[in-house]
Amino acid sequence: MTGVNYTLDVAGRPLHILRNVGLSVQPAEVVAIVGPSGSGKTSLLMLLAGLERASSGRVLVDGQDLTTLSDDELTLFRRRTLGIVFQSFHLIPSLTALDNVGLALEIAQPELPLASTRAAATEALAAVGLADRLHHRPAALSGGEQQRVGLARAMIAKPRLLLADEPTGNLDQKTGARVIELMFDLARRQHTAVVLITHDPGLAARADRVFTMTLGELTETTSTGRG
Ligand SMILES: Nc1ncnc2c1ncn2[C@@H]1O[C@H](COP(=O)(O)OP(=O)(O)O)[C@@H](O)[C@H]1O
Ligand SMILES: [Mg+2]
Question: Which residue from 7, 31, 84, 147 has the least number of CB within 10 angstroms?
Fold first, then answer.
């Protein structure tokens, strides 16, 4: 994205949420964004997901300028190009791990035969270490396991871009670190670009590049780690 401004009208007055934000992420590259609460991090992800529209500037994802797409085109873009991992997992409580993950592929690729969808979901769950949890419902899984299901769901359709908004916010630090390792590993293997929002500087430091959001302004703060 380049020169992106995001301004909302709140009670007749402009509220500047993002100011002249630029960010570019390459395939297989992991970018972390840190910054205080209310600084605009989630808003940035909403623009990258095409769930909100920039007030000005360009938002290019995988060669598509989201600012020029219709709502229907944005829906297709999300199905084909994006994976999203949420802080609170957002799994469907009545569905097993296998069906939660399978459903995501069914939505992305409805033409795929059911047997192929189930086989792919089984494989995706195995890739996150849950081969023996296929038929568990979310309530029967630990937080770390639920987020690994969330990760398998986000990655099953081989997205070009993975967006993660504080995905470890509901996990203890050690479990969170393992989920993040897994996310980075899967993303690099599938050549998926990752934008990860995190409060944890230790997790952010594992990304290829780190950015800090302050009052709607994004600056690169990658440390070279070599002094
Ligand atoms: N739809 C909205 N209406 C009014 N204010 C909003 C809206 N969405 C976000 N904001 C405001 O924009 C700022 C940035 O929010 P957000 O992107 O959620 O920050 P972060 O994820 O960094 O905590 C906050 O001050 C928030 O209150
Ligand atoms: Mg947020």
Answer: 7
